[in-house]
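Objective 1b. Sequence-to-structure analysis of Prophage P1 protein 51.
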Amino acid sequence: MVMDHDIYFGYQRPRPTEYVQFANFDSRQLNLYLAGRIANNPPTKEVTESIGYMDGIIDFSDILGRRIFDNRTIEYQFKALNINYHDRKLLEQKCKRLLLIPMRQPIYDSHDLPFYWFGKASSVTANDDHVNNVLEITVQFNVSPYALRKGQFDDIWDNFSLETGYAQFTKYSVKGTKKISLYNDSDLKSRLKVICQNDMTINGKYKYTKNYQDNPNFRLEPGINDLTVNGNGDIEFQWESEVML
């Protein structure tokens, strides 16, 4: 990969192995070394009420049957090594443009793959170390509380992790009636996208067609989901996992 000439000096350095990629910002392409990351847990949304002459408080936070979280802040510290003042200044300006202009979108951290975060940069600060010719860039992202993962497997082992993945078939041929089990590794219910060319019905009441692939009333529960599919033709299931990391 060709480095930008304004920030790369032609001599060979070890390529950074850990990286963060967001929109057109890729720390590897900028030869930024990831020096640290801070990913605290998301704060819980608390809804409480204190009533006079009553011990304690009434907590309504769990009224939906699960804890509700607010967005979290993820912070990264990068270092650019052995570059002169002029190039440090250019790199600082470039990082701010690449990070602060884009709106909310996926943030890929090599530490968390195959999961990604969804959010936007909220702060970019620079510390210029002129003694050692080092530029330190600190980036804060405001992201959704859960990490996401797209694309379930179809028993494909390329780029598959036994620690974070679950190999399963997601494409089937249906002739009349077929019983299918899907495992959802998400911590939350997942909205299911059903791709089919012919009309299909799931569990006797959720209907899907070629032009109607997202039924807002049907969700995959965390864990094993046993489905009964009625119809004829090929059917494919797609969903996105939300996981607390």
